[in-house]
Amino acid sequence: MTDPLFAAKAPTPAGGWRTATVALVDHPTPRTVRLRLDVPDRVDHLPGQHYVVRLTAPDGYTAQRSYSVSSAPSDELLELLVERWPDGEVSSYLADDLQVGDRLQVRGPIGGWFVWRGDDPVLVVGGGTGVVPLVAVWRHSVHLGRTDLVRVVAAGRTPADLPYAQELTAAGARMLYSRTATATRPAARIGLDDVADLVAADPVATALVCGSAGFAETASRLLVDAGKPVGAVRVERFGPTT
Amino acid sequence: MSGPTRGFLGRSRQPRDPRLPPGQYDTGADWPVLTAEVTPRLDPQRWSFTIDGLVQRPTTWSWDELHALAAHDSAAGGHPPEYRGDIHCVTTWSKLGTWFGGISLDTLLDAAEPLLDQGFVLATSTTGYTTNLPLADVREHRAWLAWSHEGKPLSADHGGPVRLLVPHLYFWKSAKWVTRLTVMDHDEAGFWERNGYHDRGDPWLEQRYQGD
User: Fold this and answer.
1) Chain CA centroid to CA A213, Å
2) Cα distance between residue B61 and residue B46, in whole Å
3) B25: phi then psi, degrees, rounded to nearest 5
4) Does B46 touch chain A (CB under 8 A)?
5) Chain B residue whose CA is closest to A2
6) Are B199 and B193 in contact (CB under 8 A)?
7) Nearest C-alpha in B relative to A221
8) Which residues, numbered 122 to 151 in chain A, qualify as contacts with chain B under a Cβ-Cβ cut-off of 8 Å?
9) With an 8 Å Cβ cutoff, are A14 and B129 in contact?
């Protein structure tokens, strides 16, 4: 009864805490901040894994949050994309105060389930900042010369709202906008027609679904309704992490 | 531990709620959903819960049988069928002052009679999700099967119809859609425990990841 996909895998050790140096900070969309970090003695991550960022106040108080990695393991720097939440204790600091040259405590990579190991076909579906791990998968496939293994579906409200929209569009991702009509698709939330052919083309390929709880629930259900076995779907849900 | 992060002051910490373990924040009325698999749709009448492994009497209960047992516990002043308190997720949110209804695992373990006191249990969900715990962590009024939350049936995304509830440990130990508890004489890593997370997961000790 235990699904084979849940079978044991080698544990993925989280590296210890490291002091990263901020190499780049920018704001790809109004609600997000992109960090590129130089992490000494970095442990190579798998696309889909995340890092923990820890902030320390002068009195020793700390706050830490997890963020998905968007860079490929081959990238010299570690790239994180953070959604800024109103009053977010960590995300507002990262978005508003962090500067190039600052030092940040980071720990990772973490997670051994929601990953792509680079050697099997994968369908990746992300909504909003849930596209971040998809970008890591795509970039890794480019590095490996195996983009043939990867199918990408990315959903957002508008192209201006969706991080990495340009890069994903150029990658040939299927772009789904709920508020923007395109030449091939009216403005609409993700539906069965958006995934049915991709599922039919390779029903048993692993699917990685990432997004808000609502998006992940809808998208994972659509994949199953389209014929993908439940055991082939791996889900990463997130809520507001402030 | 390195020095402070330049320019970071953090939220006002006076007063920090003493119910919050280190590194956690109060999620307020929210209850985030974090699950690694597709949410199953379970018919309670086709669901059952089994305790097996190293027990005197391997036992399977139906939904109706568990509810009858819980009602009996309530009436007879048995193991408390309710938890009121806090829950803590490894992703750093805590939900304070919440409550769940169901049945104490003590009632079920008393019936199945583990053959040892210092063993381990592996909880298994209908999805194949697993999590491991020391047997001692699911005894002494510290673990439940929960089917209601704040008076309403537990929703599917939060593990309904029935989840394990072990609120003194990080919440990935509280397996959603639980269907089996296997008593063992050795520890066997569950799903997240094989994937980089801590074997026990005590929030007050910040046992988040392997090596903590």
Assistant:
1) 14
2) 11
3) -125, 160
4) no
5) B128
6) yes
7) B38
8) none
9) no
> Residues 140-199, chain A: which have Cβ within 8 Å of B?
none
Nearest to A160 by CA among A128, A125, A191, A201: A128
Distance CA B90, CA B3 (A): 24
The string of DSSP letters for A174-239 reads EEEESS--BTTB-S----HHHHHHHHHHSTTSEEEEEEEHHHHHHHHHHHHHTT--GGGEEEEEE-
In chain B, the percentage of residues whose pLDDT exceeds 70 is: 98
| Mean pLDDT in consecutive groups of 10 residues from the start of chain B, 212 residues | 86 81 90 86 95 98 97 90 96 94 97 95 96 97 97 95 98 97 96 91 94 84
Torsions phi, psi for B119 (to 5 deg): -85, -160
Q: What are phi and psi of B126, to 5 degrees?
A: -60, -25
If you write DSSP's letter for every residue of B150-202 in order, what string do you get?
TTEEPPGGGTTT-EEE-TTS-GGGS-TTEEEEEEESS----HHHHTTB-SS--
Of chain B, the end-to-end C-alpha distance in Å amounts to: 14
Structure tokens, B22: 């280190």
Whether the CB-CB separation of A124 and A151 falls below 8 Å is answered with: yes
Report the complex ipTM. Answer: 0.81
Total number of residues shown for chain A: 242
- Label the pairing between strands A50-56 and A62-68: antiparallel
pLDDT in tens, B128-140: 999 999 999 999 9
Per-residue pLDDT reduced to its tens digit, B87-130 = 999 989 999 999 999 999 999 999 999 999 899 999 999 999 99
Structure tokens, B9: 């002051």
Of A64, A114, A236, Cβ closest to residue B23: A64
Which residues fall within 8 angstroms of residue A53, CB to CB, at 6 or more apart?
Answer: A64, A65, A66, A67, A80, A90, A94, A104, A105, A106
Q: For residue A3, what pLDDT band results from cuts at 50, 70 and 90?
A: very low
Chain A / chain B CB contacts < 8 angstroms: 144
Which helix (H) or strand (E) segment is B63 a member of? helix B63-76
* Tokens at A102, concatenated: 């600052």
Domain ranges of chain B: 42-205
Report the predicted TM-score, pTM, of the whole model to 2 decimal places.
Answer: 0.85
Which backbone phi and psi does B87 adopt, to 5 degrees?
-130, 150
B126 contact partners, CB below 8 Å, separation of at least 6: B40, B42, B47, B177, B179
Residue burial B105-121, b: 16+ Cβ < 10 Å; e: rest: bbbbbeebebeeeebbb
Residue with tokens 């659509």: A222
The helices-and-strands tally (H runs, E runs) of chain A is 5, 11
Please say whether the beta carbons of B7 and A97 come within 8 A. yes
**Which class would CATH give B42-205?**
alpha beta
